[in-house]
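SUBJECT: A protein chain and its fold
Encoding: whole-number codes for local backbone shapes
Chain under study, with its fold:
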Amino acid sequence: MHVFVTGGTGTIGSAVVPELISAGHTVLALARSDASAHQLEKQGASVLRGDLSDLTAVRSGAASADGVISLAFGRDYGTAEALARSIAEEGAAMAALGQELLGSDRPLVTVSGTPWVPGRASTEADPVPTDGPVGARGQAVNALLALAERGVRATSVRMPRTVHQDGLGGFAGLLTDQARRSGIAGYPGDGTQRWPAVHALDAAVLFRLALESAPAGTAWHAVADEGDEVREIAAVVGRRLGLPVQSVPEDSFGPFGSIFAMDQPASSAVTQATLGWTPRHPGQLEDLERLQP
């Protein structure tokens, strides 16, 4: 299959591109910079220059492909306004991709987040939120999945709060960055809230499986660790960086503060049983032990 990929140099995408190529697919990847283009070409992908806001390039890449994996997301989300802009840009690109594939029965795999459900781990059957700080993202994903009725094999791979590799990435990575800036390995609340996680290399396999075989209109969970307590995550970060570990105010984490404070475990039991996906790489706490001071 010839696959068009956006976000091919991000934490997830840099694992997805070689996974696709090693499985015998060819890849055309969107690249916004010379550095990104060079990285993609080294991995064996062809390059289409442009960024997520260039809807002409986005549609052109989809038009030339047998399938699409959409992973790109804006890099600026340090404020609520910037996060909203990045979500809007992602939504416009997903809509353009979907329109390009109408009536083709070609696969379009997008990324979203696992939902949170009070009192239990969320499952693939639970809806994503359509209100709150990231509600617009849920609305865009739902609109894309609805294209299953219009001849697009649209599916969604829901990512946990942390997608990690070598101790970097995701919510745990943001917590680590904040620790380096503040000198405290902090966590909101009492730290008993749980964050699910997955290794980027395991997530890449699930994106390939969804591209190859997932039915239209379905959602899947790329969850390896159902939920580690945030105070345990902070404890590893503090030990690795030589910093004190303690509770800090939610607003220490900017627009993510209220989300960081939520208990949000997630299950991937249905995904593993249905698509035959089995996580094999180090879990979140083990991988964080690779953090460098």
Summary: The domain at 2-162+198-223 is CATH 3.40.50.720 (Rossmann fold). The chain has two domains: 2-162+198-223, 167-196+226-266+283-288.
